[in-house]
Input
Amino acid sequence: MSRPDKTPAERPRGFIDRKGAEIAAEARVVEAAGAVFERWGFERLETPAFEFTEALGKFLPDEDRPNAGVFSLQDDDERWLSLRYDLTAPLARFVAENFQDLPRPFRRWQTGPVWRNEKPGPGRFRQFTQCDADAVGAPGPAADAEMIAMGAEAMAAIGIPAGGFQMRASTRKLLNGVLDAIGLDSARGQLIVLRAIDKLDRLGPKGVTLLLGEGRKDESGDFTKGAGLDAKAIDRVMSFVTVETGTRQETLAALEAVVGDTEQGKAGIAELAAIDDVLTALKVGDDQARFDPSVVRGLEYYTGAVYEAELTLSAGDGEDAGRFGSVGGGGRYDDLLTRFRGEQVPATGFSIGVSRLVTALAAIEQGAEAGPAKPVVVMAMDKVATVNEFELAAELRAAGIPAEVYLGGSGVRAQFKYADKRGAPIAVMCGQDERERGIVTIKDLDLGAEVAKNIEDNEAWRQANPAQFEAPREELVAAVRSVLDREFEK
Amino acid sequence: MSRPDKTPAERPRGFIDRKGAEIAAEARVVEAAGAVFERWGFERLETPAFEFTEALGKFLPDEDRPNAGVFSLQDDDERWLSLRYDLTAPLARFVAENFQDLPRPFRRWQTGPVWRNEKPGPGRFRQFTQCDADAVGAPGPAADAEMIAMGAEAMAAIGIPAGGFQMRASTRKLLNGVLDAIGLDSARGQLIVLRAIDKLDRLGPKGVTLLLGEGRKDESGDFTKGAGLDAKAIDRVMSFVTVETGTRQETLAALEAVVGDTEQGKAGIAELAAIDDVLTALKVGDDQARFDPSVVRGLEYYTGAVYEAELTLSAGDGEDAGRFGSVGGGGRYDDLLTRFRGEQVPATGFSIGVSRLVTALAAIEQGAEAGPAKPVVVMAMDKVATVNEFELAAELRAAGIPAEVYLGGSGVRAQFKYADKRGAPIAVMCGQDERERGIVTIKDLDLGAEVAKNIEDNEAWRQANPAQFEAPREELVAAVRSVLDREFEK
Output
């Protein structure tokens, strides 16, 4: 089949093509979230795909060719450019570049593709979509509370039913209180503890306990070295992350008992109490947002409140029920601009995992209506379409019904195959015979496929032609609409 | 100001940041065009930013580091990847990769950014948006006619008023007839003639005549070598491209006289006549689509019909009136898949120059309504916002009015500056005094700014406070809406 002089038609690994229904599902999520963000006064921004590698901050080139995690290339003037790996780093550059001109707080939302030069895997791509809202120059817990409330409103607007999601929030200060209490002050040790806690959902208390101590061997036999805490310290950390939670007030009381004896712990509880006040003012109930000390977020850069949007809905029933977990999150990161400005600027932000949310929505059949309507196919009865057939299609489109004339140049059999591949609901036929009689023949393709399943005798089926009927030429639109309406009702 | 250890906050040249109104204007164009494409049975597709450099076809690496016109980098497995420079090359790869599974004709539309690694200039960026519709596997002039009709429908849907645009079409066969007649059969010579004709709009008949002959010296003194045709041949080409045009039928008759004596010329006229039949069936009038032999499109790869969407509207009056010219175009290119499949697959397609169209729309003030509504700012009267202030903002949002609480931590004067920078129409104030009296104070910021212009005495203005009024707390939404409605009426 393939000759050596032909170019192979293939995609680079980790990149996908997407079609109508999937693009539409993602667009609906972004549109719904964006409308909420704009109602809260967040202005849309779009930055280019490329930034100076140096401006992205996290992945500085330490070799001749920087490529750890990012796609980079050298510009004509020898400077390194990288494709953005998230929407936060470009925001930092944008705010620093326009610092004097921007209102502060600067509230912006942005959506678009980001690129990661990583090893692709199942459901793990090298290009995917993010949708973020951030407030830069907004100190204080009220700004964090707004993000949590807005996150809840966005989830609802996207179409997650009430009770199907929950915002979970905490603050790094609480954890810092615990770390103070156990005397762990090395940055490296603290990071190991942070990452261990972040795995609670996946490994359970037993796995996290191992990671806080000597370490843990996974199923494949790989050993992860632990934080090396002693039994008493481990106990303290575990009693913190597994504290019994309830309403926000109840959780605050329980946390008071566990971390209320340290300065940082006290500060953390005061912060959450302030967040609770604003959430209550914004009418965000305990069912929509709760406090959970096991929410820590794996990234080092958060400096205060941290929050996640969790889907509590599941797909399917019983033991096989799939839980989706976190579909978005964020927190306070007051060092966003430090490398550009040499000083802290308070900031807090929230990012929606759009692709994950779309997948989840599809699985719980929220996205089932999906995709734009498929076109009616007007058949070219003489292989090459006639003027009359173009008029029929134009009439349908003018009535708002997607329609097209078959233009492939093949016979009627191939045209039915085409209509089938297109997922067309209806074929319209108007050959010379129909034209002379002043009628059109309309075939309900979905009904036809259904009926065909139950008829064994090919000849009998052909004669009965159950899903096909004639209509006066001038009643084309009404006749097509009657079939479409019937489909819709099913 | 800037210390050496700070990262400079800057963008790579040729890339821009865009804000709300501009993003919204582009989204409106794409949405309107996409809705038309889907009504005509075109399915949306999204391909990734990266393709194998080899698959992009036109810019093969002829050196160690390919970078002529495209952004390229080497993947971990040493293969070269490039960012797409248009949406047609990825379509070719997609169709070739899924050839057996796709319905044929395959009708798809796509929009998204493309990247060109070229020298940026005024209005010339290294990342910009395209929006394309193509039919692959559709032979015959009817498919081209559909593209022209659909292009006209898209222009109208985008908001260009009737009479403000025109589709101009021709076919390469006509030109081939002329080239046959003058005996020019070298591919190189033909390309020079093609490019000369393509400059008719810009250089006029005199300039093109020079380029068809010895060559032309431009204002800067640069000399462009011409096609070297003799006077008789030049005359024949020029009488072809400047043929008197009128209705499609009239133009066909005039062309018959100029190129009807060659095989290719005859074939071209028959093709345009077939296109005219379909356009007439689709009710596309002579005012919306005309034939014009000077439309040739500069690219070598077109093999039949070529068409352009021209904005005939202008910005401003008299001699300064800016004409926008072509805002989209396309044609038949039957060799799209040849390099992948070793055989021709007939295809025809249309690309809208989105950025150019958005610029034009803005200039003719069609895009003036633009941008999402600006938020009402609820002031934080005690610097740090109170629970009450969050409730006020939530109430406005629940009524569908964009609103935010000021969260920057600065005093009232800074908050007014903030509201001004945000373009906020209204500030709502509700400090302790207002709370005790059960009222809110509402300030019409646009009216305030207007009145302030006419009052010189600062003190008098402050006492009059003309644009500010009190409303009962429970009438907040109605009071805010009354001001917004007044703004809207202006």
